[in-house]
Amino acid sequence: MTEQLALTRSQEIRRQRVIEAAMALAAEGGYDAVQMRDVAARAGVALGTIYRYFLGKDHLLAAVLVSWAADLERRVAVRPPRGGDVAERMVDILGRATKAMEREPRLSAAVVSALSSPDPQVAECQLDVNRIMFRIQAMAFPEDFDPDLQARISRTLGHVWFSSLVGWANGWMGIKEAGEELAIAAHLMLDQYG
Fold first, then answer.
1. What's the confidence (pLDDT) of residue 74?
2. How far apart, in whole angstroms, are the C-alpha atoms of residue 138 and residue 90?
3. In this structure, how many other beta carbons lie within 10 angstroms of the beta carbon of residue 98?
4. Residue 129 and residue 136 in contact, taking contact as beta carbons nearer than 8 Å
5. Chain centroid to CA 67: how far?
6. DSSP state of 142
7. Nearest to 72 by CA among 119, 131, 27
8. Contact assessment for residue 111 and residue 26, using Cβ atoms and an 8 Å cutoff
9. Longest pairwise C-alpha distance within the chain
10. CB 45, CB 14: distance < 8 Å
11. Chain centroid offset of residue 24 CA
12. Global pTM value
């Protein structure tokens, strides 16, 4: 995120503590459990400190998702996607992302709810998550794959993933069905490329 560029090391540490506190509160009680006073108390910072970094709860929770996505990127880089072709590798990546969210259902529902906010800072976080997910998905493609086609496929799979997560968070789709939707979309778009 652009706002992080000007942070000192100690500010970045405080900001990360705030994100971790919000993550813990959301994991315990979901969206409603993330109250800024409680986040401040859990992070050991003044309430005003939080507002230096985040304009509100949705912005903070969207930043939690950016942090989560960055962690996923590190894990996928350490353990590259498995599969004999690009579709299988993509299904592996998206399956890992979905399973990680399944392990923390309240947290996942909270960040999905926050991402629906029209807040401009949330939109910036959405772009950050999209950039990270694009880099993660790129690990599924062979080096000689057409970059324009790769970008269109990744963007479309990102939309399917987000839509599936919204369906799961709102209770009209189970996490298994969300994973199946992603697998179907990946195979429909990528099977032809072997």
1. 96
2. 9
3. 22
4. no
5. 8
6. -
7. 131
8. yes
9. 55
10. yes
11. 16
12. 0.88
One-letter amino acid at 148 equals: D
Structure tokens at 144: 């000689």
Specify the pLDDT at position 4: 47
- Residue 155, pLDDT > 80, answer yes
φ, ψ (nearest 5 deg) of residue 141: -90, 145
Query: If we measure between CA atoms, which residue out of 129, 130, 111, 122 comes closest to residue 169?
Result: 111
| H or E element that contains 97 | helix 86-103
> Residue 14 corresponds to which tokens in the numbers above?
């405080």
Residue with tokens 């999905």: 112
Question: How far is residue 188's CA from residue 105's CA, in Å, rounded to a whole number?
Answer: 28
What are the tokens at 5? Answer: 């560029």
**Residue 5's pLDDT band (cuts 50, 70, 90):** low
Task: Decide: 107 and 23 in contact? Cβ < 8 Å.
Answer: yes
Residue with tokens 């996505």: 69
Amino acid at 51: Y
**Are 67 and 18 in contact, with CB atoms under 8 Å apart?**
no
Query: Among residues 62, 53, 71, which one has the least CA distance to residue 7?
Result: 53
Q: Which residues of 46-61 are buried (b: 16+ CB within 10 A; e: fewer)?
A: eeebbeebbebbbbbb
